[in-house]
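Run: sequence + adenosine monophosphate -> complex structure.
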Amino acid sequence: MKRILSGIQPTGSLNIGTYLGSVKNFVKLQSQMPDYEFFIFIADLHAITVYKDKQELRGKIRELAALYVACGLDPTRVNLFIQSEVPAHSQMAYLLQCNSYIGELERMTQYKDKSRKQETGVTVGLFTYPTLMAADILLYDPEFVPVGKDQKQHLELARDIAIRVNNKYNDIFTVPKPLIAEIGAKINSLNDPTAKMSKSDNNEKSRINLLDPENTIKKKIRSAVTDSLGTVKYNPEERPGVSNLMTIYHVITNISFEDIEKKYEGMGYKEFKEDLGEIVYQELKPIQERFNDLINSKELDTILDNGRERANQVAFKKVMKFNDRIGLGRKRK
Ligand code: AMP
Ligand code: TRP
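>> structure
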């Protein structure tokens, strides 16, 4: 069976940017592509490239797993698992490090950004992060990897590594293709609409978190930065604020930009923002209810146990095969 795989980091606060740009896309894919087996994992090993408090990390891992299921990820369709519970990821990462070059890792723009911002020493893990990501992917031979635009460069590196290893070791990996959601692929910050809405922005007002209560959601939208023109018109270059809000509106309701413009013709931002607040709240309400049922449940553990078991099956086999192709250990019988 062909496969689709993706991962998400348990850091920051899952917000409508990640939801509309990524999680919702998985939920759609699981029904649109019935011939594929899905693997989605919580990338906790990726989270520790920068020091994390233990309790917080644990909490985030579980929260993220519950949120994924609450957002509609179907555990009967998708193997949902935690990366660190499948040891082959770390093993494969090492093997791939021995097939990657310092120069190509130094070119990664995310590494350059993050290492520049890092105040106390840059860990080796932050540098080798793309080889771990390549391991995550290549272990499962997926045909497609759904990611946001910011991960495209890492995915291209994974492809380069796969092709290189295939040439050296006789076609061991499937070369994965990125699957990038087109519309709604980028939701921007509410207080700086030229920057991406980010899980890690220190300003809480920049994003709507999936677990924000109703009044917080509505308040944040009311105070979102727009401009002084006061008309609902889509023009991302000149009017990024209102265009970003329209993108959120459009992605949730499926109403075209043109129809949104018509609907609010002759009105100011107030009415548009009130409606959008309600639309976002109605979208998040069932997710929050399901999340509350799941977060402390045995059901969630069963889902993660099942996911781990299946992932281990596939990943262990692959890493053993690669060890053997390289000539490590003793010849397999
Ligand atoms: P992150 O862990 O924040 O890098 O995001 C996980 C996934 O969600 C990646 O594939 C991102 O590209 C996507 N994503 C994150 N933030 C946004 C956003 N504001 N708009 C659209 N997609 C996003
Ligand atoms: N690096 C990705 C991010 O920050 C998460 C991730 C880790 C991932 N491993 C992956 C995504 C493998 C796709 C495939 O968003």
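>> summary
Residues 6-9, 43, 46, 133, 136-137, 145, 147, 151 surround tryptophan (ligand 2) (CB under 6 Å). The longest helix spans residues 298-326.
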